[in-house]
Specification:
globular, five-stranded parallel sheet, 10 strands, alpha/beta, Rossmann fold
Length: about 210
């Protein structure tokens, strides 16, 4: 689950953002919409524990990550938060499977190739496990990024603009896939986007102004 209260952030240049409260239960999905520059990426970085908030609290799986620091925060993030970045940031010299194994290792979890392969199978790209990521299609790389975010069985999945580079058909596929995976794994899912096509989805929606 994910819950925030009175969350705000202030940059050194004086730009500041005050965010609405979020309450997303296990298996629940929240869509955060807003134009570019309105604070969507800032919010995602706060929720991921990549930046400390100026005010407020962020509970992930009933633990307040806004009070965590250093290695404790890094370890908790690795085990409990899966992030799908807009840019996939794969290590191109490694295979898809090796990128997933690395994600397990960096989180301090047991390196388990069987679990990685099962996650890839869940996303219908198991046959791409030994391919380098630059050998994949755009849609396959997106699925591989989702697999990497899921491989540590996170209680929270954060997706940053997962559909911005996709056509209408693949946009529909990716959002339906993320929704299905979140419910199947009983994870809270937050999708941060400016993609107006997603407004038609029957999801809990927060619009940043």
């Amino acid at each position: 689950m994910l819950k925030t209260e009175n969350l705000s952030f202030k940059y050194e240049n004086g730009n500041s953002f005050l965010f609405p409260d979020i309450d997303t239960q296990d298996g629940g999905i929240t869509l955060v919409l807003g134009k570019s520059g309105i604070g969507k990426s800032t919010l995602l970085h706060l929720l991921a524990g990549l930046m400390p908030p100026h005010t407020g609290n962020i509970w992930v799986n009933q633990e307040d990550i806004s009070q965590m620091k250093g290695s404790n925060l890094d370890q908790y993030r690795g085990k409990n938060i899966g992030i799908i970045f807009q840019q996939n940031h794969f290590i191109s010299s490694l295979s898809v499977l090796e990128n997933l194994l690395l994600a397990q290792s960096l989180a301090g979890n047991e390196v388990n190739s069987k679990k990685c392969l099962n996650t890839l199978k869940q996303l219908n790209i198991e046959e791409k496990a030994n391919k380098k990521t630059n050998q994949l299609s755009q849609g396959e790389r997106q699925r591989a990024a989702i697999a990497r975010a899921l491989v540590n069985s996170p209680s929270l999945i954060l997706a940053d603009e997962p559909t911005s580079a996709l056509d209408d058909e693949n946009c529909e596929i990716v959002i339906d896939l993320l929704s299905h995976i979140a419910k199947q794994n009983n994870s809270a899912l937050v999708v941060v986007t400016h993609d107006g096509r997603l407004k038609s989805k029957e999801l809990d929606t927060i619009v940043l102004h």
